[in-house]
């Protein structure tokens, strides 16, 4: 009886279309939380996340809803992260559901992430409930958007619920439709345990807390469990539900969504997508869809103060407990000293980690420009992976270089098609297809090197389309490219941390641009500093940073020691984000200069 009254669902939407606002309304309208307990957007739990206004960590909450048919239903609302870096996590949270509420902004219509999320939902056979949100807006055109949902996604426009999370319109209707349209969970309560892990976070007191959906069987405290991907076994210390506060329960059974803890020390032992089964009575096969996540973007991270190297290692160790897709290994740079080569799912993931290290651990960092992984066939017949441009082998030893490509889907009003195509062309994209979504909006598909997407693509796309374009992309594999390594020499010395990989056809212009840019960024020194860009032995561009002329201290005549100290202090302050490389002081900005080039 109980199983029939469970409904497991997510809300999927493009960024800013109102997912969190709608979740809040559903929570309020089911009286799951007291009004005064309610922080704005309750499901977003991390600070940084709230500041950036995007959902990074997943969560699930149990709601009670008494429907028009008089029955009480148990809803599990599963939150999904809203960024392309985390699409695997999204797909695993959706796998924990039978349905999804598809939110589309009544003024904006379908955007790139709307479609990307719809595909993920369809992959998981979810029942979709279309909701046209923000109908209170003066610019809202819910009929047009309803028609667009019918044309593009194939959900009849009569099925779309017109709603406003802000004005509290349509919320009851959404709750009723969840009852009627989303199927109750299938699954056998008597079968061996199969539980899907769709999120894992590390708690310093209790170890890893994983969010799970029970597909078959049941689990309770004291049970011995096994992680099917890693084979590791643990004893369950607690199972519970989020109301949204964590509440321990005796047992989670088939169809339930809740959390489990089992004195697990690192999230790497309770991986998103893995299946938990009973150690004594294991299921025959795991649930489908588990993938080991591999980082796609790498950068070097170096403490500005070399004495903080060990602190940085400890910070990375701590973060890794909570982040199974973060990778790092020690790396030495001639220019920057001892640091780590760190790998991330994408740029946002990288920025979040860097920010946390600086903010939570108080370590000032120099981070080198992000790089993708190149696959390099050497003349001796071997193939190597290169995630650090400085380590790209000499051209004479290289047979061919391949780089990762993505399929990029860009949606834009047709006035901006020209601007988008120009940008994609400039970024070495290959045009694939272009379709009209309705009479004004176009979906454009390009294949583009991941490195070009990583470097500033999104910002340029936004500025070239006045913010109207939306972007989503998927990795499609490796393709050969004519790439070369560009080295930067300061004072005739190669600065390994400034090396980058560039396409042959753009090498000369890039070399020139970067040298000019560095000249602006690197402050004048006591002496003239030549800057050169070189490919192998060949210098492709050079310029000089003029010397500074006079020393700060020459302003104080003689003995006023406190004044002198103050000046030195001030100078130090200015140098905060600088690293001495040989005899030259280089600011952090210089390492990222290569990213912001045209
Ligand atoms: P991410 O967390 O960034 O993915 O965004 P989201 O989809 O969760 O959107 P969110 O709920 O944060 O809403 C985005 C903005 O739209 C906020 O400023 C909301 O106040 C506003 N908004 C949400 N729903 C409505 C609505 O029905 N009407 C109006 N006028 N504004 C709304």
Write the layout of secondary structure elements.
Layout lengths: L5 E8 L5 H11 L17 H6 L7 E7 L5 E7 L8 H9 L3 E7 L6 H12 L3 E7 L8 H12 L7 E2 L8 H11 L12 E10 L3 E10 L1 E3 L3 E4 L5 E3 L2 E5 L3 E4 L1 E3 L3 E5 L13 E4 L18 E7 L5 H13 L5 E7 L3 E8 L2 H14 L4 E3 L6 E5 L4 E4 L11 E16 L3 H10 L3 E7 L4 E9 H5 L2 H8 L5 E12 L1 E8 L2 E2 L5 E4 H18 L7 E7 L2 E8 L15 H14 L3 E4 L2 E4 H5 L6
Parallel strand pairs: 1-3, 1-4, 4-5, 5-6
Antiparallel strand pairs: 2-3, 7-8, 7-16, 8-15, 9-14, 10-11, 10-16, 12-13, 12-15, 17-19, 17-20, 18-19, 21-22, 21-23, 23-25, 23-26, 24-25, 27-28, 27-29, 27-30, 30-31, 32-33
Helix pairs in contact: 3-4
Guanosine-5'-triphosphate binds next to helix 1.
Average pLDDT for all residues: 86
- Major sheet, described briefly? 8 strands, antiparallel
The amount of helix comes to: 10-25%
Question: Any ligands, ions or cofactors bound here, and which?
Answer: guanosine-5'-triphosphate
User: Radius of gyration, Cα only, in angstroms?
Assistant: 27 Å
Counting DSSP H or I runs of 4 or more residues, the number of helices is 14
Kindly state the number of beta strands: 33
Quickly give the structural class: alpha+beta
Strand content: 25-35%
Strand order of the largest sheet: 11-10-16-7-8-15-12-13
In the predicted model, the low-confidence regions spanning at least 5 consecutive residues are 33-45, 48-58, 553-557
> What is the CA-CA span between the terminal residues?
63 Å
